[in-house]
Amino acid sequence: MKFTLTQIKKSAHQQPFSFEGDVDVSELEKMNNDIRKIGHVHVKGECNLQGNEFIFSFTIHGKMILPCARTLVDVPYPFDIHATEIFSTSEAYKEDDEIHPIHGEVLDLTPYIKENILLEVPFRVFSDDPEAMKKGVPSEGRDWEVITEETDKKTIDPRLQKLASLLKDDNNKS
């Protein structure tokens, strides 16, 4: 999502410069994060001009696929992010400030959209679909298995089977 400074200045003096469109952020899937799938996001906002500063206020709507923290199945996670980014043509601002310098005549908002999405990725998500949880979760592996309450009552630990036979012998003697 790129804008030229003259395009913004021409319309921002009378009223805020409004913009809306879809941005492809699928590059985030290749980065080292939990996002398994994300396509286009919808960005809508406006830009206000105050001296040398361009103040962008925008909303990012979209949906990403994240892994469930318990089962690792795909969980759709819709998001609605409100962000404000400030840019300036003045040389007085350093790179450390909250104000981003503009180099050249074109302002590219796409890296800041991606950054705001990455900042909003939740620490963990859980799947609510019980069927998906059953399909995606292994129930046993090498030297382990999942024990539910029903299977726990039916099976006796093999280490304790000899004790059970001793209890039966004591009951028979009495």
From TrEMBL:
Superkingdom of the organism of origin: Bacteria
Pfam family, one: YceD
UniProt-recorded name of the protein: YceD family protein
Organism encoding this protein: Tigheibacillus jepli
